[in-house]
């Protein structure tokens, strides 16, 4: 039996974080066994393999949710790098990781007296209008809200690694009131070529801060406490909406409050000489979870 360590990623000062079961020596595990581990714990799970010699990378990571393999998982990547660093397995503070969605660069910022802060790279975001804008009312009903709860902005499909449908909500109170209908969300995501609905609203009185919730298409649970690649997609969506300016100042995205797991996700743009994003970095803090045993209940 492989050793599984559970890491809580994107922890905030209030606690929270999204648990990620991690296996740092996954050699010999097949897809069925990795899916079974994710199902037993009820979370996105990360698995570490040696990188292929031709890639020149340091590691290969694979990611599974209770129902299937994922091409990329931001919080599981960050949690895995944090675990490797914490256990003294890393030779450098920068490493290259092969994933199904492409190669990711990770950076460990380890300042004396402070917990390690891990960032990973993501490519420039792709933003598109919905292919079926007539589904707007159905989307609003599927998340348990009314039209007056939604900002007068279009819904967008945004992606750095996987497509998320961005849904602008007026206030944190209305955001917290959303109640997802998972079956309807799955059907709508299929129609929209999306992997989940990412609701967001401005965080009151705080520039470049936003509250969010993620309702996945079909992962085996109704909601995520923190979703790194959805946050990167949102950051590029915010630029498209004109809600933020292009800057190296991080965007702070709060997620998980409605689940009782308040989490903080930091996104900063990688800008070229014309101040145009050529990608971004998503980062956060991690810690070992108190509960290291399989439960399958933490998403609740």
UniProtKB/TrEMBL annotation:
UniProt cross-references to Pfam families, sorted A to Z: PhzC-PhzF
Active site: 44
Protein name (record): Phenazine biosynthesis protein PhzF family
InterPro entries membership: Phenazine_PhzF-like
Family, per entry: Belongs to the PhzF family.
Gene3D superfamilies: Diaminopimelate Epimerase, Chain A, domain 1
Organism in which the protein naturally occurs: Pseudomonas abietaniphila
Keyword Isomerase: yes
Regions crossing the membrane: none
């Amino acid at each position: 039996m492989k050793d599984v360590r559970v890491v809580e990623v994107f922890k905030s000062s209030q606690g929270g974080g999204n648990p990620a079961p991690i296996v740092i020596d996954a050699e010999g595990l097949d897809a069925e066994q990795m899916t079974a581990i994710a199902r037993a714990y009820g979370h996105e799970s990360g698995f570490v393999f040696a990188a292929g010699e031709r890639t020149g990378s340091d590691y290969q990571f694979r990611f599974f949710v209770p129902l299937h393999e994922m091409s990329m998982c931001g919080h599981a990547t960050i949690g895995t790098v944090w675990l490797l660093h914490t256990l003294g397995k890393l030779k450098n503070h920068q490493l290259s990781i092969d994933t199904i969605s492409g190669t990711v660069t990770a950076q460990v910022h380890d300042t004396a007296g402070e917990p390690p802060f891990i960032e990973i790279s993501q490519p420039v975001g792709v933003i598109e209008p919905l292919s079926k804008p007539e589904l707007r009312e159905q989307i609003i009903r599927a998340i348990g809200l009314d039209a007056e709860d939604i900002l007068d902005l279009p819904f967008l499909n945004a992606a750095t690694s996987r497509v998320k449908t961005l849904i602008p909500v007026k206030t944190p109170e209305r955001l917290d009131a959303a109640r997802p209908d998972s079956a309807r969300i799955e059907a709508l995501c299929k129609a929209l070529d999306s992997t989940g609905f990412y609701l967001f609203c401005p965080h009151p009185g705080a520039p470049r801060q936003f509250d969010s919730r993620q309702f996945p298409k079909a992962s085996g649970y109704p909601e995520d406490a923190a979703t790194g690649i959805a946050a990167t997609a949102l950051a590029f969506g915010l630029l498209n909406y004109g809600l933020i300016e292009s800057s190296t100042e991080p965007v702070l995205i709060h997620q998980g409050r409605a689940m009782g797991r308040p989490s903080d996700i930091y996104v900063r743009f990688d800008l070229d000489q014309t101040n145009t994003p050529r990608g971004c970095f998503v980062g956060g803090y991690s810690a070992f979870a108190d509960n290291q045993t399989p439960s399958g209940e933490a998403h609740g």
